[in-house]
């Protein structure tokens, strides 16, 4: 019999094997200072493009005031206990009612965290006789939720309608045999590519197939649609989303999440979501803070307008300079380059230390080998100066990547490590 830990000693995993070179810089970096368009990294001032504070609420003075007053009033513990036992309050109910109204649903239920919330929602919606159909590029929280499912599950090619229909037909055939139903899961916005899920086209398939639709709209909530109600509103199909999920961790710059849908569905979920039934209630400081943030989403459209002004300037500038930003239809701005992981490390180091630009780097196994993805998140706090400096920097690093500078640099570093 093997030692349980033997695999840990033998194989650190596709990302873990780079830990000695990457940790503290490329992964687990420490940004310092107030959350803003410009922060500090290892003592240097950097323009930050990796903070999901879309509307700039994280350090808005009105938000900071409400957060501070709520902390003084309630402390960090109240209410104690799970919602079903001793952690339910009038303010939780008020927040739920306002969220339901904002996303145009009958009812909503506030969740402690986004990741465990969507995972538990999937678990509660399906039983062993049901079939799940979901996008192959779904976020890890969705994948983990699907892993809990004891029945059949099928992935479809990313945003591929032929693949979706093929798998719906397979799922429907199995469900007819088991006596179960079909749940289709899509994201409103795919956080890596920036593409919106094809919700309008998926909803159209309801005329042909019998399924329910769950949408994780973490990146769409607050940024898309006329009122900010998300990707469903943007595409004109909000009413046809059976269960709508969003997190407070993006546009609301906080912690928590919620699900919304028909009253009877939400009532069922709140009595069957294990991650909520057996976990401490969302603290009152976060509930009061969420109410203030939601009020600002509804009454300050200038925040979303400024966000999109910056999105258009950044994405337009990148396109004009010939950068590949894929097919993003959201604020998420991916920049695709070709190169190895060592080249990517040299490139990002140059970008941060010589140009003062901080953005997230994504490499294999998250994306195919040979590609480098620089993922950028524009916010309402960014300025045209930030954008102009970034565009100049990106042109410079692309030239060095293409002329082999980073390849030579990474080879030299590797040789030094071998000799040491």
TrEMBL record:
Record key words, sorted: Transferase
Domain Aminotransferase class I/classII large: 45-391
Xref: Pfam families: Aminotran_1_2
Cofactor(s) required for function per UniProt: pyridoxal 5'-phosphate
Database matches in PANTHER family: CLASS II AMINOTRANSFERASE/8-AMINO-7-OXONONANOATE SYNTHASE (PTHR13693)
Protein source organism: Psychroflexus halocasei
InterPro entries the UniProt entry points to: Aminotransferase_I/II_large (IPR004839), AON_synthase_class-II (IPR050087), PyrdxlP-dep_Trfase (IPR015424), PyrdxlP-dep_Trfase_major (IPR015421), PyrdxlP-dep_Trfase_small (IPR015422)
Recorded GO MF terms: pyridoxal phosphate binding; transferase activity
Descriptive protein name: Glycine C-acetyltransferase
Highest taxon above the source species: Bacteria
